[in-house]
Specification:
Layout: E1 15-24, E2 32-42, E3 47-51, H1 58-66, E4 73-78, E5 81-82, E6 90-93, H2 105-116, H3 120-133, H4 149-161, E7 167-171, H5 179-196, E8 199-204, H6 207-213, E9 216-220, E10 228-233, H7 249-269
Parallel strand pairs: 3-8, 3-9, 6-7, 7-8
Antiparallel strand pairs: 1-2, 1-4, 4-5, 9-10
Helix pairs in contact: 2-3, 2-4, 3-4, 4-5, 6-7
Bound molecules: adenosine-5'-diphosphate and magnesium ion.
């Protein structure tokens, strides 16, 4: 495995939410509190998931860590300092990719470095290396419209990794993919993430995905004003083989434990009671 580009011994979390509440002041029918009193932290080399029913505030939490949304109360810390503005030490992988259709794969990947450094030849060299690492050697000159959904996801991954982030932020990044492609991508992202030493915050409604990937899982309660309803450690060894992990008894055990918490919140969301 390659040397991590980050030191993994720093005790300061790469991101920390301290008692954060988000209220949207004007929703057309008054103010709406999406999440309340959320505290969590992400350490280097750890992958933390937040799971919760639809509308429970998962994206709201990620957007706070990204610096796209300021908490109405509480504070966000990045590498020990209070976050002001965008979190520039983080890389993002969103549900929808944001590739520029008029740029070739290599130019889309180089874009995030161009903004930072301006040495275009060097950016392109690194972009080609990252395209190779995400399995897209030979596709450098293609435009997004000439690539499959899975290949565009790979470009988005290369765009994220090329900036060597301290923290990767993922908001349901695999939900638009078919089940097999998703599994392969999850395995690849785990490998790249582990060799990076970065921290990771992963948002999903899919508990299987959360258990397979995470070290720690937080469950959000149903909204409005969602709080953290539970916190679970995932005691599965790394590296993990995602193609077979679901057969392990330890997997079933932790899955069932988290599900008993999440299930209640999902039922609450739809106004139903547990059977
Ligand atoms: P999730 O990602 O868990 O599905 P979100 O974080 O996107 O949920 O949203 C949480 C809640 O906050 C939802 O009820 C949503 O409608 C509301 N919400 C999100 N963004 C805004 C906004 N900009 N203005 C008002 N309400 C919002
Ligand atoms: Mg969301």
């Amino acid at each position: 495995m390659a040397e991590p580009y980050l030191s993994t011994d720093a005790a300061v979390p790469v991101a920390r939410l301290d008692d954060c509440t988000v209220t949207f002041p004007d929703t057309g029918s008054g103010a709406y509190t999406a999440v309340r009193n959320i505290s969590l932290s992400v350490q280097r080399g750890k992958l933390i998931s937040v799971v919760g029913p639809t509308g429970s505030g998962k994206s709201t939490i990620l957007n706070m860590v990204a610096g796209l949304l300021r908490p109405s109360a509480g504070a966000v810390y990045v590498n020990g300092s209070r976050l002001q503005g965008l979190n520039r030490s983080a890389g993002y992988l969103f549900q929808q990719d944001t590739l520029l259709p008029w740029r070739k794969a290599v130019d889309n990947v180089a874009l995030s470095l161009d903004y930072r450094r301006g040495d275009k030849a060097e950016s392109r060299k690194q972009a080609r290396e990252w395209l190779k690492k995400v399995g897209l050697a030979g596709f450098e000159e293609r435009y997004p419209a000439q690539l499959s959904g899975g290949q565009r996801r790979r470009i988005a991954m290369a765009q994220m990794w090329i900036t060597e982030p301290d923290l990767i932020l993922m908001d349901e990044p695999f939900s638009s993919l078919d089940a097999q492609t998703r599994l392969i991508m999850q395995q690849e992202i785990l490998q790249l993430w582990q060799s990076s030493g970065a921290g990771a915050l992963f948002i999903t409604h899919d508990l299987d995905e959360a258990v397979s990937l995470s070290d720690e899982i937080f469950v959000l309660s149903s909204g409005p004003a969602s709080t953290l309803a539970g916190r679970f450690d995932v005691p599965l060894e790394r590296p993990r083989d995602l193609l077979d992990i679901k057969r392990l008894p330890e997997y079933q055990e932790i899955y069932d434990e988290v599900w008993s918490c999440l299930k209640q919140e999902v039922l609450n969301t739809y106004g139903l009671k547990s059977a």
